[in-house]
Amino acid sequence: MAKKLVIKVTAGADAPERCSQAFTVAAVAVASGVEVSLWLTGESAWFALPGRAAEFELPHAAPLPDLLDSLLAGGSVTLCTQCAARREITEADVLEGVRIAGAQVFVQEALGENTQALVY
Questions:
Q1: In the predicted structure, residue 86 carries a pLDDT above the cut 90
Q2: How many whole angstroms separate alpha carbon 51 and alpha carbon 95?
Q3: At what angle do helices 16-31 and 64-74 cross, to 10 degrees?
Q4: pTM of the model
Q5: 3-state helix, strand, coil in the chain (%, to 5)
Q6: Nearest CA to 93 among 103, 75, 79?
Q7: Does position 20 have pLDDT exceeding 60, yes or no?
């Protein structure tokens, strides 16, 4: 079993089931003791901002704010540099605990020893 799980979520409110699945898998992995790095890219970039996860709704799914809180508490959450720039999001705008980093850092994490990478 992978000791680290890197998850890139590209979907937001535009594809709610895919988005929810990524956050759910990441939160379950954290709860299971797996080291998790969740990357917010594309439309999921908005969830790096305070209050945005609370706007997300999907019937029969765990609340996104709860999933995000568990990831911030037990894993790492990264906002893609280019995705942030396209949306004019800066480090001063994001939730506490969210970092902004680019493709080089993603590749380093995804290619780490005993690491599994998933893209949603």
A1: yes
A2: 9
A3: 40
A4: 0.95
A5: 40, 20, 35
A6: 79
A7: yes
* Closest among 59, 58, 65, 69 to 31, alpha carbons compared: 69
Which is the CATH superfamily of the domain at 4-119? Answer: DsrEFH-like (3.40.1260.10)
Residue 99: strand pairing partners: 78
Max CA distance (Å), the chain: 38
Under 8 Å between Cβ of 72 and 31? no
Residue 50 identity: P
**Coil, helix or strand at residue 70:** helix
pLDDT at position 1: 57
Pairing, β 76-80 against β 98-101: parallel
Q: Which of 3, 45, 34, 40 is CA-nearest to residue 22?
A: 40
How many angstroms separate the CA atoms of 18 and 36, rounded?
Answer: 18
Any idea where the domains of the chain sit in the sequence? 4-119
- Output DSSP code: residue 75: S
